[in-house]
Design brief:
This protein has a single domain, classed as TIM Barrel. Helix 5 crosses helix 6 and helix 7 packs across helix 8. The chain is an alpha/beta fold and about 290 residues long. The protein is built from nine helices and ten strands. The chain is globular, with a radius of gyration of 17 Å.
């Protein structure tokens, strides 16, 4: 059975575990691997976000910098804020009750987004790439997603391969260490969700070894978020061509979603909200029918 939690956010809380929650992705970037450039203009990003809400997204995750493999150029905090703050303001103007997450590792961007009404900070670096973000989150009362990554995007192709026996213990050990580091810095445990970081410094089959043991991360005592949507390891295995068409891997993404739910994920981060909501309902029904 999936354990239940009450996730404390900035101004409210979310019950996790009764059903799978869907986090819809809103990339305000020119170069995202999944939809780069489609929603860079604020009005289009706002319209896309409102569509995702109408399709059933429980949370919207707004990002202003791509962390695709091989990415080398850093986006400045000023540019990142220029991209995301108008979108945050526009969404909350049109949908005041929306629960928004900011996908950033930059403390300056996180602070500005929280002031603008965001409820959650989703940091792909596990709060390690900006030394100011943990002190900020220790003072700010907000939800936090702590994600595991191995190295930085420009290093991923040169990282040594991991054996099937190495992948899960590495992620488990790192997430334990990083979550302890966060709580020691003043981030309350009931504000943290863990993400194993599929695709972030893990090569093809390494991700499947990790996904097959996702449920074992429950031993750390935190809710779990999984993001396999449009990841290259899923798309290539399913036979689609993400380089030619990032949207072509829907079937594989839904398979990854279903596996994640059956492994105990509380939140699924997705690009295609409507089919993901439908798939999560079925996966939840299967999970609830399983013998204890």
């Amino acid at each position: 059975m999936r354990p239940e939690f009450e996730w404390k956010l900035r101004s409210r809380s979310l019950k996790l575990g009764q059903r799978t929650l869907i986090m819809g992705v809103v990339n305000v970037t020119p170069d995202s691997f999944s939809d780069g450039g489609q929603f860079l203009e604020p009005r289009r990003a706002i319209e896309h976000a409102l569509t995702l809400l109408a399709e059933g997204a429980d949370i919207l995750d707004i990002g202003g910098e791509s962390t695709r493999p091989g990415q080398r150029e850093r986006v400045t905090a000023q540019e990142e804020k220029r991209r995301v703050l108008p979108v945050i303001a526009g969404i909350l103007r049109e949908a005041p009750g929306a629960i928004l997450s900011i996908d950033t590792y930059n403390a300056e961007t996180a602070e500005a987004a929280l002031a603008a009404g965001v409820e959650i900070v989703n940091d792909v670096s596990g709060f390690t790439w900006d030394e100011q973000i943990l002190p900020l989150l220790g003072k700010q009362a907000c939800g936090c997603v702590l994600m595991h990554t191995r190295g930085r995007p420009e290093e991923w192709k040169s990282l040594p391969a991991l054996s099937p026996e190495q992948v899960f213990p590495l992620v488990l050990s790192d997430l334990r260490r990083l979550s302890e580091r966060a709580t020691l810095a003043g981030v309350a445990k009931d504000r943290i969700v863990l993400d194993p970081g599929f695709g972030f410094g893990k090569r093809m089959n390494e991700n499947f070894f990790l996904l097959s043991r996702l449920g074992e991360l429950r031993q750390l005592g935190f809710p779990l978020l999984s993001g396999t949507s449009r990841k290259s390891f899923v798309a290539r295995t399913s036979g689609s061509d993400p380089a030619a068409d990032p949207c072509s891997g829907l079937a594989g993404s839904l398979a990854g979603l279903t596996a994640s739910v059956l492994q105990g994920a509380h939140i699924i981060r997705v690009h295609d909200v409507k089919p993901s909501v439908e798939a999560a309902r079925v996966a939840d029904a299967i999970a609830k029918a399983a013998p204890v």
